[in-house]
Design a protein that fits this description.
By secondary structure, the chain is of the alpha+beta class. A hairpin with a 4-residue loop joins strand 13 and strand 14 (261-267). The protein has a 9-stranded mixed β-sheet with strand order 2-6-7-10-1-11-12-13-14. Strands 5-4-15 form a 3-stranded antiparallel β-sheet, with no helix packed on it. Strands 3-16 form a two-stranded antiparallel ribbon. The chain contains 15 helices and 16 strands. The structure holds zinc ion (ZN). The site of zinc ion has 8 residues, from loops. Zinc ion binds at residues 22, 25, 27, 39-40, 42-43, 152.
């Protein structure tokens, strides 16, 4: 009998906070810009400068932590994490070590229709490092350039408990965390711009064993898909190592997206390698309960609450409610459509169906969609009025998606108005009956299916413009 294994996964997620200025100075946090233009003596680590904590960073960190059900520390402090790297001008990063601003949180994920609670160990504040720009890749580059624009941009790092058991759970956790943070408004969580970054710790152990196996850490995961794929690969790799009678080496590995494999980067460093010590330039951070409660009261509606509301108030199935609330943009769009169109399930079907299909096919997200919520509502109203059929609506929708034009304009331009004139349809129905004696005979012999074929023929002859209900009715009348 072969040994069964289970994976143990924990995630460390870094989120950039969208404050106007950096965590310890007045330099702008704006993404991009010419290299080394968003800098000042403080974030460049020049001698004689002192950091001053940005109040907004504290507020945002507390906001995110409360949304993740953490307890907020009344007393926390900043520490220096010492290491040398060219993108870190001070040779230490200001972070929080033994006394983080928040601990003991959780979030709930849904996988295969089951709800599972994933613990959050801690959330702490720290400063981001700069960026090295290589010519090609890091190994073959003749030289590297450094850009300090990102140095000192505020981050929160959120460390989960090792509560996840599959790549799917890890992905669900990361997606849920992103949704929650987005709803709080403290970050836009754009993985492609690096404002949400994810590292995964993973080990495997024989099913039934209590002790954890030796873990590896995977870096360079820049999409949720990459996270899921990298974990699936790494779990298989570790199992193969154990099956071969070898040991898993504790190390940091990188995900190679094009080859679909993880590669060894370096042996894993331990906390004591960093020589953490309290930053003498910053006073400890003391927060009173009144301040914490004030922020708690200002929290907006979060994904779980919104999801419950969609089910209770709109009668949406859990599946729809989950997908619609997974990103704030999707959810906000949905609510905008409902202002001008009052059938939530129909809107949900269009958004999860045609819209998602076209967004995926074009590789864009809903914020880039040319169809504005009001325009979608107008189109759905045209369907309800019977001006266009559902079938035509799909054509109109696609045209709206590509051009951003109003449904009504497209319908007029292309002459797509649904034919609901019984006289006009009756003529076509007669032709179809005459041309398909076999199907007519089948239907009269009790084969209910045959009518579907005949309806299809009428729809074809009218280029999809005939009102299908009317076609059905006329056919049945004539075949009686
Ligand atoms: Zn600065």
């Amino acid at each position: 009998m072969t040994q069964q294994y289970e994976a143990v996964i924990g995630l460390e997620i870094h989120v950039e906070l969208k404050t106007n200025t950096k965590i310890f100075c007045n330099s702008t946090t704006e993404f991009g810009g010419d290299p080394n233009t968003h800098v000042c003596p403080v974030c460049l680590g020049l001698p004689g400068t002192l950091p001053v904590l940005n109040k907004k960073v504290v507020e945002y960190a507390v906001r995110a932590a409360l949304a993740l059900n953490c307890s907020i520390a009344n007393f926390s402090k900043f520490d220096r994490k010492n290491y040398y790297y060219p993108d870190l001008p001070k040779n230490y990063q200001i972070s929080q070590y033994d006394l983080p601003i928040a601990e003991h949180g959780y979030l709930d994920i849904e996988v295969d229709g089951q709800t599972k609670r994933i613990g959050i160990t801690r959330l702490h504040m720290e400063e981001d490092a700069g960026k090295l720009v290589h010519q090609g890749n890091i190994v073959s580059t003749p030289y590297s350039l450094v850009d300090y624009n990102r140095t000192g941009v505020p981050l929160i790092e959120i460390v989960s408990e090792p509560d996840m058991r599959s790549p799917e759970e890890a992905r669900a956790y990361a997606e849920k965390l992103r949704a929650i943070i987005q709803y709080t408004g403290v970050s836009d969580c754009r993985m492609e711009e690096g404002s949400l970054r994810c590292d995964a710790n993973v080990s495997v152990r024989p099913v039934g064993q209590k002790e954890f196996g030796t873990k590896t850490e995977i870096k360079n995961l820049n999409s949720f898909r990459a996270l899921q794929r990298a974990l699936a690969y790494e779990i298989e790799r570790q199992i193969a190592v154990l099956e071969a009678g070898d040991r898993v080496v504790q190390e940091t590995r990188t995900w190679d997206e094009t080859r679909g494999i993880t590669l060894s980067m370096r042996s894993k460093e331990q906390a004591h390698d960093y020589r953490y010590f309290p930053d003498p330039d910053l006073v400890p951070l003391v927060l009173d309960n009144q301040y914490i409660d004030f922020i708690r009261q200002s929290l907006p509606e979060l994904p779980d609450q919104r999801r419950a509301r969609y089910m209770d108030d709109y009668g949406l199935p859990a599946y729809d409610a989950n997908i619609l609330t997974l990103t704030k943009e999707m959810s906000d769009y949905f609510e905008e459509v409902l202002k001008d169109y009052d059938n939530p399930k129909t809107v949900s079907n269009w958004m999860m169906g045609e819209m998602t299909r076209l967004l995926n096919a074009n590789g864009i997200d809903i914020t880039e969609c040319k169809i504005r919520p009001g325009q979608l509502a107008d189109m759905l109203n045209l369907v309800d009025k019977g001006t266009i059929s559902i079938k035509i609506a799909k054509t109109v929708f696609e045209e709206m998606f590509n051009t951003g034009k109003d449904a009504e304009a497209i319908v007029k331009e292309k002459g797509l108005v649904q034919i609901s004139d019984a006289g006009a349809i009756a003529a076509v129905v007669d032709e179809v009956i005459a041309a398909n004696p076999k199907s007519v005979e089948d239907f009269r012999a009790g084969k209910e299916k045959a009518i579907g074929f005949l309806v299809g023929q009428v729809m074809r002859a009218t280029k999809g413009k005939a009102n299908p209900e009317l076609v059905n009715k006329l056919l049945r009348e004539k075949l009686q």
